[in-house]
Amino acid sequence: MIEAAAVTNVMRALGDPTRRAVYERIVGADEITVVELTRGSGVTQGAISQHLKSLKQAGLVVERPDGRKVFYRARPEGLAPLVDWMSYYGTFWRERFADLRNLLKEIDP
Amino acid sequence: MNSAAVKQQTQEIVVEEVFPHAPELVWKTLTTGKLITRWLMEPSGFEPVVGNRFTYQTKPAGAWDGTISCEVLEVVPNARFVYAWRGGDDANQGYGSKLDTLVTWTLTKVPGGTRLRLVHSGFAMPRNDTAFQNMGNGWRTIVPRIGAIIKEEE
Known about the structure:
The complex is a heterodimer. By secondary structure, chain A is α+β, with helices and mostly antiparallel strands. Chain A has one domain: Arc Repressor Mutant, subunit A (Orthogonal Bundle), CATH 1.10.10. Chain A is 62% helix and 13% strand. In chain A, helix 1 packs antiparallel against helix 4 and helix 2 (17-29) packs across helix 4 (45-57). The relative contact order of chain A is 0.14. Chain B contains four helices and six strands. In chain B, helix 2 crosses helix 3. Chains A and B meet through helix 1, helix 2 and helix 5 of A and strand 1, helix 2, helix 3, strand 6 and helix 4 of B.
């Protein structure tokens, strides 16, 4: 079950809110360095580096060394294990249940 | 039949909730086009009769126009409603990939209301990690939803 392991890895990597925030910044930036990511993040550069390492291991980001700088960018395919039909419909049906609950309440208070 | 092998290849979504309403009313909301429109989506050509084919229009992806094609397979008034839910395209991965699934609604009368159970079954797990190749920049719109997705799955 390679697929299931991939899903777990991605979820573990993005389950941490700080790490998810780092990831979202990388997604929004095309390419970004550790220094830039640390700026305004409220955590240390060491912590950011650890998060980058986890994101890299989960296949969510890739690095591109350029001289003394390392640029990070998101790897869209990394999200694939997470965003399939199943996760889409998992959210979809739960939202529909909430709408159904409201409709029933309206019809039969 | 090797059920262990089948289980490895497909997955299902189960959502269950007790509603403080009679099964007859819950049934009506599941099987009346106008009411379905109000909580799910507007069905086209829907009739709660075995063999009926109807569609839902959803967001297109790649070669797929976004049409979900359904077929009513089982109708047991106030108790059980099953339809096929098909869509997608072989060329897509992730959202918009080939989808041949089953939606099963089960209603059970319980004290004070109705237990409604949805089983959406037959999901093939992602086959490879080349998903999103056909999505262009569309994948970025998914990122803000990740938090919610992770909460749902765990």
